[in-house]
Amino acid sequence: MELVRPMLPVTGPLPVGAGWAFEFSWDGIRALGCAQPDGLRLFSVRHRCITAAYPELAAFLARRRALLDGKIVALDSCGRPSFGQLQRRMNVQRPTSIMLSRSPVTYYVFDLLSLDGESTLQLPYQRRRELLAALQLTDGPVMMPPCFMDADGQTVLDTATQHGLHGVIAKRVESTYQPGRSRHWVQTTLRQTQEVIIGGWLPERRRAASIGALLVGVPTEAGLRYVGQVGTGFTEANRQELGDRLAGLAVPASPFADLVPSEAGRRVHWVEPRLLGEVAYRQWTPQGRLGHPTWRGLRPAKHVAAIQTPVVLCAQGSGPEREDQRLLAELDRAVAQVRSELRTLRDQISPHFLHNTISSIVAMVSTDPTRARDLLIVFAEFARYSLRSATETTLADELENIDRYLTLQKTRFRERLRVQIEVAPTVLPAVLPFLALQQLVDNAVRNGIERQQLGGTVTLTARQDGDDCVITVSDDGPGTLDPNVAGTLRTINDQLRERFGARYGVFSDVIPGVGTAITLRVPATPSHRAGE
């Protein structure tokens, strides 16, 4: 396959208006992938072969020949792309088995440049994504991350903020693939801010009297907690001002309540924690440190007591933080168990739902561990039910698991997801194909709620109609029926007719611009058999 120069985004504010699709921006190494039935070859943006450095990706066996564009990423313990984690693998030509297990990588593919020897560069972005989706890269070390075609860009950016991601890339849906930098792709990088207290400084390596980095912290009940070094964002005037003001605050010992990592070859100058400043950063690391911090300046008009302390657990330390460590360890084990179950669950439950659910939970591990633990329990119960080796279930059991599903989805959609459920007690014993109703509710959420900026309402009703039970799942979304969903409905319909008889089945009512309603008709009596 002939390699091409990758298409690059310009940096700018989030575009508004129609005609844009949105992807999350992944912190990783840009790479082109030549996918073949006998393996995957990887190349850097300068077309240098890097296949040997990532053997877990090279082992990927493609169904069709394709030239892929994407990023190699490594995830931290919270499930977020971490460039720091990825650096352990960079420039290592022959990684050991220990390194592979400690720092695994994934190839996130977001574009398709050729397929079966035919170039796709002149096809619109939306069509290239459709062809990429047809390759079914949903599992393993090579996968296709989500793309939001009909979403509001600000909603996608807010989601990236909530999950601690790098930012968002907007892409014009009708744009061709244009090697080099193009205004048809716009990257909006997230930078959050945090007020911090200066507790020390490190000299520049070449100028011992000049400030090279600040050691900063945030106040806690246990004292000043160290949150990292800030070594960028300074002007010469900043360095001079900071040097003058910190000179009169020197103290012989660290003002931080916890241990500060040592700096080989550079002596730390400790200071009284009196100066308040502000930094911009991308995310909090799992160790409770500022990720990629940049100095924004002093804030002399504010008192240090006015700092809003972030809710971030520290992964190291002692004393009052030991309980936090135990909780983090417990959550890490639970997250690992959940991840191990995803492969089996993907065969029965929407991979889109699974990916977003685990991402939402792991994003809370460092910021709201109690809530994360509660949601992991809900997910575990959801998984246990979904993994049952059953062909049938009752409406009562299915509704109980749907309640778990909606609890998990509300974590992501919050007030955008509204639910109305009305079920007659007399129909609770009715028998259904296993997970049939679950799939209908999942379709209503994904096609009726996710695509709308303001969300919408999912309604589930179950009533008795003579000897029958009539169950309807409806949404007030755009009124469309995905081809994959149509296939699922045909399968459920066949199951119902074979089990109960010709007058039972699935009935859909799709009204563009109004919504979708799907109805199941089953016997209200569990003992009913076909022909009765």
Structure description:
With 532 residues, the chain is α+β, with helices and mostly antiparallel strands. It has four domains: 7-188, 2-Layer Sandwich (D-amino Acid Aminotransferase, Chain A, domain 1); 192-309, Beta Barrel (OB fold (Dihydrolipoamide Acetyltransferase, E2P)), CATH 2.40.50; 313-387; 416-532, Heat Shock Protein 90. It has twelve helices and 26 strands. The strands form six sheets. Strands 3, 4, 5, 6, 7 and 8 form a six-stranded mixed sheet that branches. The protein is globular.
The number of E-state strands comes to 26
Distance between the termini: 62 Å
Helix content: 25-40%
The helix-and-strand class reads alpha+beta
Number of H- or I-type helical stretches:
12
Described by the principal axes of the CA atoms, the overall outline is globular
The major pleated sheet works out as: 6 strands, mixed
Q: What is the CATH superfamily of the largest domain?
A: DNA ligase/mRNA capping enzyme
Low-confidence stretches: 313-324, 341-347
Provide the residue-averaged pLDDT: 83
What's the CATH topology label of the largest domain? D-amino Acid Aminotransferase, Chain A, domain 1
Give the SSE map.
Layout: E1 7-11, E2 20-25, E3 29-36, E4 39-43, H1 55-58, E5 66-73, H2 83-87, H3 97-102, E6 106-115, E7 118-119, H4 125-134, E8 142-143, E9 147-148, H5 153-162, E10 167-172, E11 180-189, E12 192-203, E13 211-220, E14 223-230, H6 236-247, E15 269-270, E16 276-281, E17 283-284, E18 290-291, E19 294-298, H7 322-346, H8 351-364, H9 369-386, E20 392-394, H10 395-413, E21 417-423, E22 431-433, H11 436-449, E23 456-465, E24 468-475, H12 483-500, E25 505-511, E26 515-523
Parallel strand pairs: 1-11, 6-8, 21-23
Antiparallel strand pairs: 2-9, 2-10, 3-4, 3-5, 5-6, 6-7, 10-11, 12-13, 12-15, 12-16, 13-14, 16-19, 17-18, 20-22, 23-24, 24-26, 25-26
Helix pairs in contact: 7-8, 7-9, 8-9, 8-10, 9-10, 10-11
